[in-house]
Design goal:
The protein is mainly β and 436 residues long. Helix content is 10%, strand content 45%. The strands form six sheets. Strands 1, 2, 3, 4 and 5 form a five-stranded antiparallel β-sheet that branches. Strands 14, 15, 16, 17 and 18 form a five-stranded antiparallel β-sheet that branches. The protein has a five-stranded antiparallel β-sheet with strand order 19-20-21-22-28.
């Protein structure tokens, strides 16, 4: 009985709080509660199509509503865009539709209906692109094949929705890539039997024509893990693409968009050291929040080089892209599963190694003097425990450094004040970084 109650409670939370869940209304027990404006638009749509409908919700991005209200024709008044399917249509395929509604004499009315290009709505962005004084409705669709996605760019003018661009994609975004005050459309598409993987920047000129710059990507990509941005070269925006290569490895290509051209800056497989290919979980991120991205690359801890692979222990080095190369910024112990990275003080370089206390599920950082020994001097221990266990752990001499959700991050610091490698409490607190 408790399980049933919990299930209903969780489901009701999704329904009534507007959480970003990747499902449509047709998969829920009840539709999300509509605002007064949305209810008016919804009733106008039903009246306009003269049928019961199923609302369709974008699965990602900032626009997660089936109702998007914006001034899409730049006439000074807002229109509504609604994605839906007719309940009477059960067939798979092109049953997804777009309806445009406008306010006429103070009431919402359906003014245009359009058969959409995809099966599901993945993402919707409403934005100008480049220099053109035109609002664009940029829709990423999931197609009939699970691995196929299509982006369409629409303009709405004189009461008609026009498709101005249709392209396959893996990742899409709209961003001011070169800090000129105008937005660009950035599309990443994976390789197929007929085309190579590529990254593309598209924008509109003042005559509403698309201007494109593209770069072909590495040829052994199996999928794209993420697109992320960070500063390079004194404020220039860097475009970082984490790519899955082979079966389970991650690689990063870096680009900038300058003078209208997409410029490869780093990461061509043929040009870089294979050591930067790393586990798929080591995603690029801004680990220290300074606006510059770090790439985490593993290195075997001192003393473990001759161990068999399953017994090796790795530290993680964090590299930044500067002066057209990667430079190491931090060494750390990085626990992806426990959600933290402890950045080593600079004086630790080459002086420490690590052990795992499997009984207590803790990481031990030890002074390293040429070989692994059971009696190596312990400098500190890191323990991650549930909040209800924090008090018990504190009695053992551990101190709470940080908390996240239901977890506490505690550290035991060696009392040996004569050892210069022993960190201070403030040093540990500053260097312990939690990963979202």
């Amino acid at each position: 009985m408790k399980i049933k109650i919990l299930t209903v409670t969780v489901l009701m939370m999704f329904i009534f709080t507007g959480c970003a869940v990747n499902v449509g209304v047709d998969t829920m027990l009840a539709p999300p509660k509509l605002s007064e404006q949305q209810e008016q638009i919804y009733q106008a749509l039903i009246e306009g199509v003269n049928s019961k409908i199923r609302l369709k919700y974008p699965k990602s991005g900032t626009n997660l509503s089936a109702f998007i209200v914006d001034d899409i024709d730049l006439d000074g008044e807002e229109e509504a865009i609604v994605f839906y399917e007719l309940e009477s249509i059960k067939a798979e395929g092109k049953s997804l539709r777009i309806n445009i509604l406008d306010k006429i004499d103070g009431e919402w009315k359906s003014v245009y209906d359009y058969s959409a290009e995809g099966v599901e709505v993945e993402k919707v962005i409403v934005s100008k692109l480049g220099e053109a004084d035109r609002m664009n409705i940029i829709v990423g669709y999931n197609m009939s094949s699970p691995d196929e996605k299509q982006v369409c760019v629409y303009s709405y003018k004189d009461g008609v929705l026009n498709n101005t661009l249709s392209e396959p994609y893996s990742i899409l975004d709209v961003r001011d890539l070169n800090n000129d005050g105008n937005q660009e459309l950035f599309i990443i598409s994976n390789q197929t039997s007929s085309r190579k993987a590529r990254a593309r920047v598209l924008k509109l000129n003042s005559e509403y024509k698309y201007i494109e710059s593209f770069v072909e990507l590495n040829t052994n990509i199996t999928e794209f893990k993420q697109l992320i941005y960070g500063l390079v070269d004194d404020g220039i925006r860097g475009i970082y693409i984490d790519e899955v290569v082979g079966t389970n490895d991650l690689h990063t290509e870096i680009f900038t968009f300058e003078d209208g051209l997409l410029m490869p800056r780093y990461g061509r497989i043929s040009e870089v050291d294979s050591k930067i290919i790393r586990p798929i979980s080591n995603k690029t991120m801004d680990i220290d929040g300074d606006g510059v991205l770090e790439i985490p690359i593993n290195e075997v801890f001192s003393g473990y080089s001759d161990y068999p692979e399953p017994e090796k222990l790795y530290k993680t080095n964090w590299f930044v892209f500067e002066n057209n190369t990667l430079n190491k910024k931090y060494e750390s112990y990085y626990s992806i599963t426990k959600g933290y990275s402890f950045m080593f003080p600079s004086r630790w370089q080459g002086q420490v190694t690590a052990k795992i206390d499997n009984i207590n599920d803790e990481v031990i950082i030890c002074k390293y003097e040429g070989q692994l020994r059971d009696d190596m001097e312990e400098l500190m221990r890191i323990a991650v425990v549930k909040k209800e266990d924090i008090e018990d752990k504190s009695r053992e001499g551990y101190e709470v450094m940080k908390t996240k959700g239901e977890l506490g991050y505690l550290v035991w610091i060696s009392p040996n004040s004569q050892e210069p490698l022993v960190p201070t409490k403030s040093e540990v607190m500053f260097n312990l970084m939690l990963i979202e």
